[in-house]
Amino acid sequence: MLPARLKLITIALASLLCLWTVPASALDAAANASTDNPSAEAPRPNVLFIAIDDLRPQLGAYGLDYMVTPNLDQLASQSRLFRKHYVQVPTCGPSRATMLTGKNLHSKEDITHQLLGKWLASDKEPDSPETFIHHFKRNGYHTVGMGKISHNADGVHDGALELRYSWDQFLRCSNQLWRGQELSHAYADGVGRSDPKRPPFERLDLSDEDYPDGQLANLAVEGLKQRAASEEPFFMAIGFFKPHLPFCAPRKYWKMYDRETIPLSPNPDPPADVDQAFLHSSSEFFGQYLSPEKGGVGKRLSDDYAREVIHANFAATSFVDAQVGKVLDQLKQLGLDKNTIIVVWGDHGWHLGDHTIWGKHSMFDRSLRSTLIVQTPDMNSPGVATDGLVASLDIYPTLCDLASLPKTDDIQGESFARLVNDPNANGRDAVLSYWRDAISMKTPHYRLAVHDDGKRRSIMLFDHRVDPNETTNIAVTHPEVVAQLMPTLKRLNDDYLPVFE
């Protein structure tokens, strides 16, 4: 008889040998079982989508060392920063409509803030998803919205949700001081922008929560806590309001900047040889707010007043950066950052005196280029920016690819998931943008814009390799470049301007 200790060793060795002699068929069955069992699959990624109103690429991450945007800069250092992201329309409603639906404008009549209401108005759920949020909902995601995602700041159009089939939940702040669009436009006391007219900014010794964005950040934090307690994947969209006019922010954000060192626009005058049809009077800024000076259409403001307004815009940008930081901190504290796709998107740019314009609504780069940051779990080369050309129209198919969802047949955007995975991949050959009687086309090197109201045509062309600030229109001196680019513009026009044949 074996000694007790030797017997135990023998039994242990026999057990190990059994482990190593499992039949191949049994191993295959185990592998197939884990594949067929949904609970054994890797969890689907959550999506946190953050829209920021009027946020041009004005962050430290874009190389502007005078900006105080530590939270968005930190995110960019772990994400893919897009240096050449362009919107389809330089105004809130239509820009968001094209982004959410992945569909382009059909005509000049589509340039209205009520575009989504017109496109999506239906008492019956459509066969095709109304937005990519709706598409995620249909694919098993719990969808939560808050703030300005579509055009209306409270998410309501004609008494119903503007995106009526997209949301499982749409959260609202309990504070009743602001209503409807005044969430975007109001001052701390809830009074709107035009009754009576006030300055286009506000600096008071207030807390973050004395403005809608501060309350919105708190709402998002609580929403993330609720989602963390659920096993359902979520799609959460948060729409921050600043730095939309008026540039309101607590005084502490103003104190982050020394006004005397704030840079003025590098291109404060209209481009040489440009038709005034491409300029505008900045009617929102000068018409709806109390301003001691008037500018627009070739008329500059004094440097002192221009610097004060820019200071206000910077403060509002730092304010919203802090709110984004609260949301991202909560995401990390809950451990949700390990399996969440994060997108930060600005709905268009904004002129801070560039070309004498104070606003959007132009066919220049300042109005059409905006912030875009995308982060995915375990992404390649995080923190490396890309110069690949992309459009807001492309966000829908890109999110489908990143979340491994099927793409619907009716979307017109092109996925840029390849750029998320590889910053050196190729982007688009061209991006088209629209504003009333004008079309603007961005290529990797040029911007070509055409204004045609059916009576006369004006063209402007800029070579961004030597003139990134678009200071000199070279359409007349370089007709060969216009001739080279025009066929692409005509092809992409798709009858938006019927004068193109």
Automatic annotation (TrEMBL):
Keyword Oxidoreductase: no
InterPro entries xref list: Alkaline_phosphatase_core_sf, IDS, Sulfatase_CS, Sulfatase_N
Lineage: superkingdom: Bacteria
Record bears the keyword Transmembrane: no
Endpoints of the signal sequence: 1-26
UniProt entry keywords in alphabetical sequence: Calcium, Hydrolase, Metal-binding, Signal
Co-factor requirement: Ca(2+)
Cited Gene3D superfamilies: Alkaline Phosphatase, subunit A (3.40.720.10)
Domain Sulfatase N-terminal: start-end pairs: 45-403
Family that this chain belongs to: Belongs to the sulfatase family.
The protein, known as: Arylsulfatase A
Organism phylogeny: Bacteria, Pseudomonadati, Planctomycetota, Planctomycetia, Pirellulales
